Amino acid sequence: MDAPPPPELRAEAVAYGSVAARLGPGTTRLAVEVDGRVVRRLEVPTGPRSLAVPVPVGDRRIRVRAIGPGGARWSKRVRTFVLPRSARRAGRMPGFVDNRLQRDVQAIIGRVPATAGVYVQHLVTGCGAAVNADAQFPAASTLKAAILVDAVRRGKATELRADLDAMISVSSDEAANRVIAALGGGSPEAGGASITDTLGRLGLRRSLVRRGYLLDARRPIRIEATAQPALFTNFVTTPFELGRLMVAIHRGAIPKGGIRRLGIGRADARREVLGRLLRAHDRTKLAAGLASGMPLAHKSGFTQQVKHDAGLIYTRNGPIVAVGMSWSASGVGHTAGSSFLSKIARSAVRRLEGGGACNGIPLKPKR
Fold first, then answer.
1. In 3D, which of 191, 197, 231, 232 has the Cα closest to residue 212?
2. If 0-12 CB within 10 Å is exposed, 13-18 middle and 19+ buried, where does residue 316 land?
3. With 80 as the cut, is the pLDDT of residue 257 above it?
4. Would you place residue 95 in the very low, low, confident or very high pLDDT band (cuts 50, 70, 90)?
5. Whether 28 contacts 96, CB under 8 Å
6. How many beta carbons lie within 10 A of that of residue 104, not counting itself?
7. Residue 278: which of 300, 296, 255 has the closest Cα?
């Protein structure tokens, strides 16, 4: 008797709790290997069938072995970033105030020696908090997430793959500038207009990109007085609009709209956009406030004057969008800026992982 045929794994770049395995005839048992270790053994009915195979959360390399009376065969190994099943929930924006979290966020901002803004919200229950969330800030590298979305929208993801990887994983300004110029047919200004158009189509009217990143370290002497962050920059956004951008990416991957409205397919939304943001290298800022292994899709931004981070925290009870932005003309130190952002993430998860309480009424998310 021959061994059953090798299973076929169908896994996109981002999966939600499980991957699909197609089993051939003669398979009676299944062994699931994750990152080189067998983590699960399953008895399965004989005969061809498709099976949803549960996989632990994280950036995983997976293969399965079909076992039958005549022997066993492995599938090909696939790599996918596995999010909790609850990450399929789309949610709504804006939501409702969680009074305790609102007090926490106000206290955290009160200790930051800079102008700051925050927007956080649990996407399943809607509970969250905000302070100064509609103020415009120099966006720094956070809008590289928008550059990424525009490149995918314009069908440039394959052509610009190396630069998109460097732009997100290590936040390379040089790579971002090459992408912006390519999106504008060689013109950084036209590239900025293209990205701003994409932001506008997502309803983000207070965010804009003028041209590429300034790589010259010199700064002109500025004669002005400002009550909010000075916007002498090519990239402008607000905490709330950054949150909406992240939610649009999240919804496009489910799919429940979001960047799908731009003509970006589900596979591209997962592989080219969400998958890159989940693997961003920066583990300071928001990431520093999270438990080890909790998935975070984010894009941080920092210069001497600003320290920002915007992301989607994927908890077992549903996604949380979290954005923190800080600016000071005299500079925001790395320690102070990263501490501010890590405290925002820690407070948001502590209060919202269980759902939060909007107007005093607890809302328990459905699994």
1. 191
2. middle
3. yes
4. confident
5. no
6. 20
7. 296
| Contact partners, residue 87, CB within 8 Å, separation at least 6 | 16, 250, 295, 314, 318, 319
Whether pLDDT at 309 is above 70: yes
| Token pair for 124 | 């399943």
Task: Report the C-alpha gap between 90 and 251 in whole angstroms.
Answer: 6
Angle of helix 144-153 versus helix 173-183 axis, rounded to 10: 40
pLDDT digit string, tens, across residues 32-61: 999 999 999 999 887 778 899 999 999 999
Whether 226 shows a pLDDT value over 50: the answer reads no
Distance CA 306, CA 313 (A): 22
- Tokens matching residue 296: 């975070």
Cβ atoms 166, 157 nearer than 8 A: no
The token pair at 309 is 């981070």
Whole-Å CA distances, 336 to 133, 229, 284, 333: 20, 17, 12, 5
Beta carbons of 355 and 127 less than 8 angstroms apart: yes
Across residues 275-301, what is the average pLDDT? 95
pLDDT at 173: 95
**What's the mean pLDDT when you consider all of the chain?**
91
Where helices occur in 111-238 by DSSP H, the ranges are 144-153, 161-169, 173-183, 188-201
Query: How many helices (DSSP H) and strands (DSSP E) are in the chain?
Result: 9, 20
Cα–Cα–Cα angle for 8, 9, 12, nearest 5°? 145
Does 175 have pLDDT greater than 50? yes
The answer to whether the beta carbons of residues 312 and 320 sit under 8 Å apart is yes
Residues 241-251: tens digit of each pLDDT: 999 999 999 99
Ordered domains of the chain (ranges, CATH) = 8-83 (2.60.40.10), 87-362 (3.40.710.10)
- Stated as kind and residue range, the H or E segment containing 8 is strand 8-10
CA distance 12 to 199: 26
Q: Taking Cα atoms as reference points, which of 85, 34, 30 lies closest to residue 59? A: 34
